[in-house]
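Input for the complex:
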Amino acid sequence: NAGVTQTPKFRVLKTGQSMTLLCAQDMNHEYMYWYRQDPGMGLRLIHYSVGEGTTAKGEVPDGYNVSRLKKQNFLLGLESAAPSQTSVYFCASSPPIAQGGTEAFFGQGTRLTVV
Amino acid sequence: AQTVTQSQPEMSVQEAETVTLSCTYDTSESDYYLFWYKQPPSRQMILVIRQEAYKQQNATENRFSVNFQKAAKSFSLKISDSQLGDAAMYFCAYREYFGNEKLTFGTGTRLTIIP
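Predicted:
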């Protein structure tokens, strides 16, 4: 059981380049989240989705876009990367609390460096 | 919006001793979940313990226990008999029960175990 898988694990981008981070989960979870982790700032929510075809902004959405065309996948896009987007990115998934799920399951993270 | 505050950026404890990590949160909701996650150097996010707000009894998982004070909006983690493997970043997190069920994190506490 793979759980939550993020692709790629590491990436170096030049300023202005674009890229897409892929998150895939095999637990049939409704909810999916993208976070960024920076020193001293914890994990901050970028965007999230409460179901296939839905997305919503989190705490720090500027400079990012997301899509959830399939329930199992949640894509995070950077259209024009900036050095301020250098961070570790985490994807997570969770079932709704009403379905008995409270815990969020995390991927292994993607370390992105923008030079 | 809910906020989670961890006022101790770093803590240290002697091996086999007990340490308490602090967390406070702000919410107007009556039903919610609270979590402590551990992040070792591997970067993996590991659930340590969870607490349901409507349960008065404090959660316990082996050497880990919480002191949940709902009125004070406080949720501290106690680690007994500290072991070298407990060294990690610890994040307190809040999940709203109704609405979008977002998961909000504190800024983390880095725990060092002194042999």
